[in-house]
Amino acid sequence: AQKVTQAQTEISVVEKEDVTLDCVYETRDTTYYLFWYKQPPSGELVFLIRRNSFDEQNEISGRYSWNFQKSTSSFNFTITASQVVDSAVYFCALSEAGLNFGNEKLTFGTGTRLTIIP
Amino acid sequence: DAGVIQSPRHEVTEMGQEVTLRCKPISGHNSLFWYRQTMMRGLELLIYFNNNVPIDDSGMPEDRFSAKMPNASFSTLKIQPSEPRDSAVYFCASSIYRGHQPQHFGDGTRLSIL
After folding, report:
1. A72–chain B nearest CA distance, Å
2. Closest Cα partner for A5 from A70, A74, A52?
3. Which of B42, B106, B107 sits opposite A110 (nearest CB)?
4. Residues A97, A31: contact at Cβ < 8 Å?
5. Alpha helix (H) ranges present in chain A?
6. Per-residue pLDDT tens digits of chain A, which is 118 residues long
7. Quick count: other Cβ atoms within 10 Å of Cβ B105?
Protein backbone atom coordinates (compact mmCIF):
# COMPACT_ATOMS: atom_id res chain seq x y z
CA ALA A 1 0.00 0.00 0.00
CA GLN A 2 1.16 3.50 -0.69
CA LYS A 3 2.35 5.58 2.23
CA VAL A 4 3.90 9.01 2.74
CA THR A 5 5.87 9.89 5.85
CA GLN A 6 6.72 13.41 6.94
CA ALA A 7 8.61 12.80 10.14
CA GLN A 8 9.04 16.47 11.00
CA THR A 9 5.85 17.56 12.70
CA GLU A 10 6.92 21.13 13.35
CA ILE A 11 9.93 23.23 12.37
CA SER A 12 10.79 26.76 13.41
CA VAL A 13 13.57 28.80 11.83
CA VAL A 14 14.59 32.42 11.92
CA GLU A 15 13.82 34.46 8.85
CA LYS A 16 16.43 34.23 6.07
CA GLU A 17 17.61 30.80 7.17
CA ASP A 18 17.36 27.85 4.79
CA VAL A 19 15.07 25.00 5.75
CA THR A 20 14.49 21.51 4.35
CA LEU A 21 11.26 19.58 4.74
CA ASP A 22 11.61 15.83 4.47
CA CYS A 23 9.28 13.44 2.66
CA VAL A 24 9.73 9.68 2.44
CA TYR A 25 7.33 7.53 0.47
CA GLU A 26 6.53 3.85 0.07
CA THR A 27 5.09 2.25 -3.04
CA ARG A 28 5.39 -1.03 -4.91
CA ASP A 29 4.59 0.75 -8.13
CA THR A 30 7.27 1.67 -10.65
CA THR A 31 5.21 4.50 -12.07
CA TYR A 32 4.04 7.13 -9.64
CA TYR A 33 3.77 10.86 -9.07
CA LEU A 34 4.84 12.98 -6.13
CA PHE A 35 3.40 16.33 -5.11
CA TRP A 36 3.92 19.10 -2.60
CA TYR A 37 1.12 21.33 -1.36
CA LYS A 38 1.18 24.37 0.92
CA GLN A 39 -1.58 25.17 3.43
CA PRO A 40 -1.16 28.73 4.77
CA PRO A 41 -2.94 29.89 7.93
CA SER A 42 -5.93 30.94 5.80
CA GLY A 43 -6.57 27.25 5.22
CA GLU A 44 -6.60 26.70 1.48
CA LEU A 45 -4.37 24.07 -0.15
CA VAL A 46 -2.03 25.41 -2.80
CA PHE A 47 -0.30 23.18 -5.34
CA LEU A 48 3.48 23.66 -5.50
CA ILE A 49 5.01 20.91 -7.62
CA ARG A 50 4.36 17.59 -9.36
CA ARG A 51 7.11 15.12 -10.24
CA ASN A 52 6.87 11.74 -11.96
CA SER A 53 8.95 8.72 -10.98
CA PHE A 54 10.96 8.75 -14.20
CA ASP A 55 12.25 12.25 -13.74
CA GLU A 56 14.86 12.49 -11.02
CA GLN A 57 16.11 15.92 -11.99
CA ASN A 58 16.07 18.36 -9.16
CA GLU A 59 13.87 21.37 -9.67
CA ILE A 60 14.30 24.97 -8.61
CA SER A 61 11.64 27.63 -8.61
CA GLY A 62 12.79 30.88 -7.09
CA ARG A 63 13.59 30.23 -3.44
CA TYR A 64 12.05 26.76 -3.61
CA SER A 65 13.90 23.62 -4.65
CA TRP A 66 13.07 19.95 -4.63
CA ASN A 67 15.42 16.96 -4.38
CA PHE A 68 13.98 13.67 -5.66
CA GLN A 69 16.02 10.55 -4.88
CA LYS A 70 14.51 7.20 -5.84
CA SER A 71 17.34 5.32 -4.13
CA THR A 72 16.15 6.57 -0.77
CA SER A 73 12.47 7.03 -1.71
CA SER A 74 12.64 10.66 -0.74
CA PHE A 75 11.31 13.88 -2.20
CA ASN A 76 12.60 16.69 -0.02
CA PHE A 77 11.70 20.35 -0.25
CA THR A 78 14.09 23.19 0.55
CA ILE A 79 13.22 26.83 1.06
CA THR A 80 16.19 29.14 0.72
CA ALA A 81 16.31 32.48 2.54
CA SER A 82 13.01 31.82 4.27
CA GLN A 83 10.44 34.56 4.72
CA VAL A 84 7.57 35.02 7.14
CA VAL A 85 5.12 34.39 4.27
CA ASP A 86 6.52 30.87 4.03
CA SER A 87 4.91 30.01 7.36
CA ALA A 88 2.40 27.26 6.59
CA VAL A 89 1.77 23.55 6.78
CA TYR A 90 3.41 21.70 3.91
CA PHE A 91 2.09 18.39 2.65
CA CYS A 92 3.81 15.79 0.53
CA ALA A 93 1.54 13.43 -1.47
CA LEU A 94 1.83 10.35 -3.67
CA SER A 95 -0.28 9.01 -6.53
CA GLU A 96 0.31 5.55 -8.03
CA ALA A 97 -0.09 5.24 -11.78
CA GLY A 98 0.87 1.68 -12.64
CA LEU A 99 -0.67 -0.81 -10.25
CA ASN A 100 -3.65 1.45 -9.71
CA PHE A 101 -4.23 2.49 -13.29
CA GLY A 102 -7.18 4.80 -13.76
CA ASN A 103 -7.36 5.78 -10.11
CA GLU A 104 -5.59 9.07 -9.57
CA LYS A 105 -6.23 9.53 -5.88
CA LEU A 106 -3.62 11.17 -3.68
CA THR A 107 -2.25 9.81 -0.42
CA PHE A 108 -1.05 12.66 1.77
CA GLY A 109 1.56 12.75 4.49
CA THR A 110 0.66 14.20 7.85
CA GLY A 111 2.25 17.54 7.04
CA THR A 112 5.04 19.67 8.49
CA ARG A 113 4.12 22.91 10.20
CA LEU A 114 6.78 25.49 9.32
CA THR A 115 7.06 28.67 11.33
CA ILE A 116 9.36 31.44 10.20
CA ILE A 117 10.34 33.71 13.07
CA PRO A 118 10.88 37.35 12.10
CA ASP B 1 -10.12 31.94 -14.15
CA ALA B 2 -12.40 30.77 -11.38
CA GLY B 3 -11.03 28.13 -9.11
CA VAL B 4 -12.92 25.38 -7.34
CA ILE B 5 -15.90 26.90 -5.56
CA GLN B 6 -17.26 25.39 -2.38
CA SER B 7 -20.29 26.38 -0.37
CA PRO B 8 -20.99 27.09 2.35
CA ARG B 9 -17.65 28.23 3.80
CA HIS B 10 -18.84 27.56 7.31
CA GLU B 11 -21.68 25.41 8.61
CA VAL B 12 -22.78 24.97 12.19
CA THR B 13 -25.64 22.63 12.87
CA GLU B 14 -27.02 20.35 15.52
CA MET B 15 -26.47 16.65 15.72
CA GLY B 16 -29.00 14.69 13.71
CA GLN B 17 -29.52 17.34 11.08
CA GLU B 18 -28.85 16.78 7.40
CA VAL B 19 -25.84 18.63 5.99
CA THR B 20 -25.19 19.27 2.30
CA LEU B 21 -21.87 20.54 1.04
CA ARG B 22 -21.57 21.82 -2.51
CA CYS B 23 -18.76 22.02 -5.01
CA LYS B 24 -18.29 23.52 -8.46
CA PRO B 25 -15.10 22.24 -10.11
CA ILE B 26 -12.90 24.20 -12.46
CA SER B 27 -14.41 24.30 -15.93
CA GLY B 28 -12.86 21.64 -18.14
CA HIS B 29 -11.74 19.47 -15.25
CA ASN B 30 -13.24 16.00 -15.35
CA SER B 31 -12.02 14.53 -12.07
CA LEU B 32 -13.47 15.60 -8.75
CA PHE B 33 -12.35 14.65 -5.27
CA TRP B 34 -13.85 15.11 -1.80
CA TYR B 35 -11.44 15.17 1.16
CA ARG B 36 -11.88 15.57 4.89
CA GLN B 37 -9.25 17.16 7.13
CA THR B 38 -9.10 16.65 10.89
CA MET B 39 -6.35 17.00 13.43
CA MET B 40 -6.50 13.32 14.29
CA ARG B 41 -6.63 11.81 10.81
CA GLY B 42 -5.12 14.48 8.60
CA LEU B 43 -6.27 14.71 4.98
CA GLU B 44 -8.38 11.75 3.90
CA LEU B 45 -9.90 11.06 0.51
CA LEU B 46 -13.60 10.34 0.84
CA ILE B 47 -14.69 9.81 -2.76
CA TYR B 48 -13.42 10.45 -6.26
CA PHE B 49 -15.33 10.91 -9.54
CA ASN B 50 -14.11 10.65 -13.13
CA ASN B 51 -16.45 12.09 -15.75
CA ASN B 52 -19.23 12.21 -13.14
CA VAL B 53 -18.87 8.52 -12.28
CA PRO B 54 -17.69 7.47 -8.79
CA ILE B 55 -14.38 5.63 -9.13
CA ASP B 56 -13.26 5.15 -5.55
CA ASP B 57 -15.54 5.58 -2.54
CA SER B 58 -13.51 3.44 -0.17
CA GLY B 59 -12.91 6.43 2.07
CA MET B 60 -16.57 7.19 2.72
CA PRO B 61 -16.89 6.59 6.46
CA GLU B 62 -20.31 4.97 6.58
CA ASP B 63 -23.77 4.98 5.11
CA ARG B 64 -24.52 8.35 6.61
CA PHE B 65 -22.30 9.88 3.95
CA SER B 66 -23.30 10.09 0.30
CA ALA B 67 -21.96 11.99 -2.69
CA LYS B 68 -23.36 12.77 -6.09
CA MET B 69 -22.16 14.39 -9.26
CA PRO B 70 -25.20 14.95 -11.47
CA ASN B 71 -23.21 16.87 -14.08
CA ALA B 72 -19.71 18.05 -14.87
CA SER B 73 -20.07 21.32 -13.02
CA PHE B 74 -21.62 20.32 -9.71
CA SER B 75 -21.18 17.85 -6.89
CA THR B 76 -22.68 17.42 -3.43
CA LEU B 77 -21.55 15.66 -0.29
CA LYS B 78 -24.38 14.87 2.09
CA ILE B 79 -24.29 13.73 5.69
CA GLN B 80 -27.52 12.41 7.15
CA PRO B 81 -27.84 12.23 10.11
CA SER B 82 -24.84 14.29 11.19
CA GLU B 83 -22.83 13.51 14.33
CA PRO B 84 -20.32 15.58 16.32
CA ARG B 85 -17.46 13.38 15.07
CA ASP B 86 -18.21 14.58 11.54
CA SER B 87 -16.87 18.02 12.50
CA ALA B 88 -13.98 18.76 10.14
CA VAL B 89 -12.92 20.82 7.17
CA TYR B 90 -14.20 19.31 3.94
CA PHE B 91 -12.31 20.07 0.76
CA CYS B 92 -13.33 19.58 -2.83
CA ALA B 93 -10.64 19.37 -5.51
CA SER B 94 -10.69 18.98 -9.26
CA SER B 95 -8.18 18.03 -11.92
CA ILE B 96 -7.85 17.04 -15.54
CA TYR B 97 -8.14 13.28 -15.77
CA ARG B 98 -5.18 11.34 -17.19
CA GLY B 99 -1.56 11.82 -16.36
CA HIS B 100 -2.09 12.46 -12.66
CA GLN B 101 -2.41 16.19 -13.17
CA PRO B 102 -2.33 18.39 -10.07
CA GLN B 103 -5.49 18.61 -8.06
CA HIS B 104 -6.71 22.14 -7.40
CA PHE B 105 -8.52 22.65 -4.14
CA GLY B 106 -11.40 24.82 -3.07
CA ASP B 107 -11.22 26.90 0.09
CA GLY B 108 -13.00 24.20 2.09
CA THR B 109 -16.14 24.05 4.22
CA ARG B 110 -15.59 24.19 7.97
CA LEU B 111 -18.31 21.99 9.46
CA SER B 112 -19.19 22.00 13.14
CA ILE B 113 -21.77 19.56 14.48
CA LEU B 114 -22.97 20.47 17.97
Report:
1. 23
2. A74
3. B42
4. yes
5. none
6. 789 999 999 999 999 999 999 999 999 998 999 999 999 999 999 999 999 999 888 889 999 999 999 999 999 999 999 999 999 999 999 999 876 667 788 999 999 999 999 9
7. 24
